[in-house]
Write a structure and sequence with these properties.
It contains four helices and seven strands. By secondary structure, the chain is α+β, with helices and mostly antiparallel strands.
């Protein structure tokens, strides 16, 4: 089953935690997805993986979500979908132009951050224009997160006395 609904009407199906670790997120966008019926049913069961997913433009300037695993619907028939097929992302032309302009610069890429249902009806994908982190940046971010956790733990322990 998909996770519980948040305050903003989002029912999260899949998160890409590795993306925030591997990339420095600069700008985020909410995109719709062109899906088949069996894909939506599979997503409603809470089954998807964004681990190897990425986005790219084709020659016509359309943005596609690739290598995202949405498993086949178990009760599906011959109309079932392919698990790792390309899926079109639906954005306004101005947003597409802005994303394409940013990714033309060296070192920038488009990564999917999460898949979710908005108000229980439409499947949305949060994508980000990001820059890859270097190894020492990743270690620094982990160290900062650990220091923050230790500080919070110490403050909580001190307040308990």
């Amino acid at each position: 089953m998909a996770k519980k609904q948040n305050d903003d009407g989002r029912k999260i199906v899949a998160n890409n935690k590795k993306a925030r670790h591997d990339y420095e997120v600069l700008d985020t966008f909410e995109a719709g997805l062109a899906l088949m019926g069996t894909e939506v049913k599979s997503l409603r069961m809470g089954r998807a993986s964004l681990v190897d997913g990425y986005c790219g433009f084709d020659r016509r300037g359309e943005l596609w979500l690739e290598n995202v695993h949405i498993p086949e619907y178990l009760q599906g028939s011959w109309t079932n979908h392919s698990a790792k097929r390309r899926r079109k992302l639906l954005l306004h032309r101005t947003e597409l132009d802005r994303i394409e302009q940013k990714t033309r610069e060296a070192g920038f890429t488009i990564v999917p951050l999460s898949l979710y249902f908005l108000d229980g009806k439409r499947v949305k994908c949060e994508i980000a224009v990001a820059r890859g982190k270097r190894e020492y940046d990743k270690r620094q971010a982990l160290r900062e997160a650990q220091d923050n956790r230790e500080a919070q733990r110490a403050m909580r322990y001190r307040n308990m006395r």
